[in-house]
Structure formats: C-alpha cells, structure tokens
C-alpha cells in the first residue's frame, strides 16, 4: 500500500467536446511526471451492463428511461471495488465521464433530479471535476456526432442546463475550450490539476 492515496480526476461535458482526447493526454502527462495513473471510461462497454448500454445508445434496443439510468449507475458500481483498491495503492485515476453524466443526461429527459442522484450515493467522490465546454454548434459538427441516440443538438442544450445544476466550484473547474487547440486545453487542465493536487484530503470521500 502507498502512503499517499491516488488522486481522482473526472472529465465531464457534452458529446464530442473533447473529453477522451484530453483524458488520454492527461494520463500520458501524469505518467511522464512519474505518477502511476490509469484511465477509466464510463460507460465501460466491455461488461454485461456495458453491452446493454451500448445496444441502447446505438439504437438497437429500446429501454425504459429509469432502466437505462440504473444500468449506467450499475456500470459504475461494477468498477467500485477495483477503483478503491487502485486509489489506496496510490494510483491516480483519470475518469472519462462519471455520475454527473448519469444525472445530467437522465434529468435532461425530464426525470426527477433527486431520483437521478440517489443510486449514485456511496460512489467515490472525485477530488476534481474538469467540466469541458464549447460552442455547441462546433461540437455538433465534429466527426461521428449524430451516431448515437443522445447526439441531437436540442437535447445537448438541455443536458448542458442540467450540468449547470451540478456545478460545485469547491471541486469543479470549468474549462472553456471554444477556439482553443487541443494543446492549449491540455495546458489549462494541467494547471488546474496542479492547484487541486495541493489540497487533497487523506481520506476518500463519497457521493453525495
Ligand atoms: N451517458 C454516459 C449517460 O447518459 N449516462 C451516463 O451515466 C454516462 C456515463 C456515451 C453517451 O452516454 C451518455 C452520454 C453520451 O451521450 P461517451 O461514449 O462518453 O458516452 O460519448 P461521447 O461523449 O460522445 O464521447 P466521445 O468520445 O464520442 O466524445 P469526447 O470524448 O467528448 O470527444 P473526443 O475527445 O473523442 O473528441 C471528439 C472530436 O473532436 C476533436 C477530436 O480530435 C475528435 O475528432 N477535438 C477537437 N477539435 C478541435 N479543437 C479541440 N480543442 C478539440 N478537442 C477534440
């Protein structure tokens, strides 16, 4: 066991805003700094729940809105024990989407906000959420937008409004990526992480 627990960093934002690009670059930079770092993506489409989620997102299977919400949450609970182990061993986790996506996307469909939060209760609370924003007109034009069921501009606007209810400046950084290069955004993220990393509590906290 490491004497210092790993940091937990989450990237959030609308579809195609650049989360995966930035998560991968962040993992690489942290590893270059000598930090043991792992990338986790939600949904994890490789598990049993992930397979159902993938069928739903690609339009092959229809599911009740409550059911798909609980599947996304279960997909996170499946990783819970492994994540705790890694953090305690001193591994930094960079997580591409998390509970905030769950709540923002489902509540944007009109489901009760508190109901959406409740199955997330008890999951690990991140030390830092990087909320990537951009001009929706730009992200909707990016490659592959429109391939999955949530890739509709009007729905994305509702999701953004739902995210705004979740912003907690005590551990969220809003990173406006509009007209910025991938490298500029990466630099901004590194600066934000550096500031947050000086203030990590010894113990793991839990949502919500
Ligand atoms: N969902 C997810 C829920 O409803 N509930 C949940 O609990 C969870 C976890 C799938 C869907 O599931 C929903 C949300 C989603 O609708 P996903 O697989 O993470 O989730 O889907 P996306 O968010 O669409 O993930 P993507 O990987 O497709 O998009 P990213 O990661 O935001 O974007 P990225 O990095 O792949 O970049 C997209 C393109 O933009 C370019 C990249 O090169 C790439 O071509 N790009 C830039 N171009 C110009 N300037 C920049 N600064 C750029 N940054 C990236």
Brief overview, please?
It is an enzyme of class 2 (transferase). The chain has a single domain (8-197), classed as P-loop containing nucleotide triphosphate hydrolases (Rossmann fold, 3-Layer(aba) Sandwich), CATH 3.40.50.300. It is built from 9 helices and 5 strands; from the N terminus they run E-H-E-H-H-H-E-H-H-E-H-H-E-H.
What would you say this structure looks like, in words?
The protein has 208 residues and is an alpha/beta fold. The protein has a single domain, classed as Rossmann fold (3-Layer(aba) Sandwich), CATH 3.40.50.300. The chain is built from nine helices and five strands; from the N terminus they run βαβαααβααβααβα. The chain has helices at 19-32, 48-57, 65-77, 80-88, 99-107, 113-117, 136-139, 153-166, 182-197; strands at residues 8-13, 37-41, 92-96, 128-133, 172-176. A five-stranded parallel β-sheet has the order 2-3-1-4-5, sandwiched between helices. Helix 5 packs across helix 8 (153-166). The longest helix is centred in the last third of the chain and has 16 residues, at 182-197. The protein binds P1-(5'-adenosyl)P5-(5'-thymidyl)pentaphosphate. The site of P1-(5'-adenosyl)P5-(5'-thymidyl)pentaphosphate has 24 residues, from helix 1, helix 5 and helix 9. P1-(5'-adenosyl)P5-(5'-thymidyl)pentaphosphate (T5A) is lined by residues 15-21, 42-43, 57, 72, 97, 101-102, 105, 142-143, 148, 150, 177, 180-182, 185.
């Amino acid at each position: 066991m490491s004497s210092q627990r790993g940091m937990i960093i989450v990237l959030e934002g609308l579809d195609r805003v650049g989360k995966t690009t930035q998560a991968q670059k962040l993992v690489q930079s942290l590893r270059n700094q000598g930090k043991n770092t792992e990338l986790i993506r939600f949904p994890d489409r490789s598990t049993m729940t992930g397979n159902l989620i993938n069928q739903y997102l690609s339009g092959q299977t229809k599911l009740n809105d409550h059911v798909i919400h609980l599947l996304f949450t279960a997909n996170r609970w499946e990783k819970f024990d492994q994540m705790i182990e890694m953090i305690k061993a001193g591994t930094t986790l960079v997580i591409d989407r998390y509970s905030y996506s769950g709540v923002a996307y489902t509540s944007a469909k009109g489901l009760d906000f508190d109901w959406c939060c409740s199955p997330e209760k008890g999951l690990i609370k991140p030390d830092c959420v990087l909320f990537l924003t951009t001009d929706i007109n730009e992200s909707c034009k990016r490659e592959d937008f429109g391939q999955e069921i949530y890739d509709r501009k009007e729905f994305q606007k509702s999701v953004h409004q739902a995210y705004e209810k979740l912003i907690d400046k005590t551990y969220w950084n809003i990173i406006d990526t509009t007209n910025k290069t991938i490298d500029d955004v990466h630099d901004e993220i590194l600066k934000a992480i550096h500031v947050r990393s000086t203030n990590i509590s010894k113990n793991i906290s839990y949502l919500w």
